[in-house]
Specification:
The structure is a single chain. The protein is mainly α and about 100 residues long. The chain is built from 3 helices and no strands. The protein folds into 2 domains: about 50 residues, no CATH class; about 45 residues, no CATH class. It is about 30% helix and about 0% strand. It is extended, with a radius of gyration of 18 Å. This is LysR substrate-binding domain-containing protein. InterPro entries: LysR_subst-bd (IPR005119).
């Protein structure tokens, strides 16, 4: 059986919306401590068995901005920051052309 198309299902645009949907019983939220600790403590959420806790010492940047120049500039800046580029690249992203 093939998985459903990616466009099917619910899409959340903020972390808190994702947590609220999980609390309301609309699915599973992949969330980390300490942000979910209060919800685990009061029983609003529960930890699923069989999953190991992982250390968060890295982040992912998924770039889907191929046709959006301003977003591409921002993604490029984030990559430079992550790589520790020295000099002017360590400043805030340029807002040239941003509206």
């Amino acid at each position: 059986m093939a998985p459903p198309p990616e466009s099917s299902g619910v899409v959340m645009n903020t972390y808190i919306n994702m947590l609220q949907a999980a609390i309301a019983g609309h699915g599973v939220a992949l969330a980390g401590n300490p942000l979910v600790d209060p919800y685990l403590e009061d029983g609003s959420l529960r930890r699923l068995d069989g999953f190991l806790e992982i250390e968060r010492d890295y982040f992912y940047l998924i770039d889907t901005t191929r046709d959006q120049e301003n977003a591409q500039l921002f993604c490029d800046w984030i990559r430079q920051q992550a790589l520790g580029v020295s000099g002017s690249a360590r400043t805030q992203p340029s807002n040239a052309g941003l509206t």
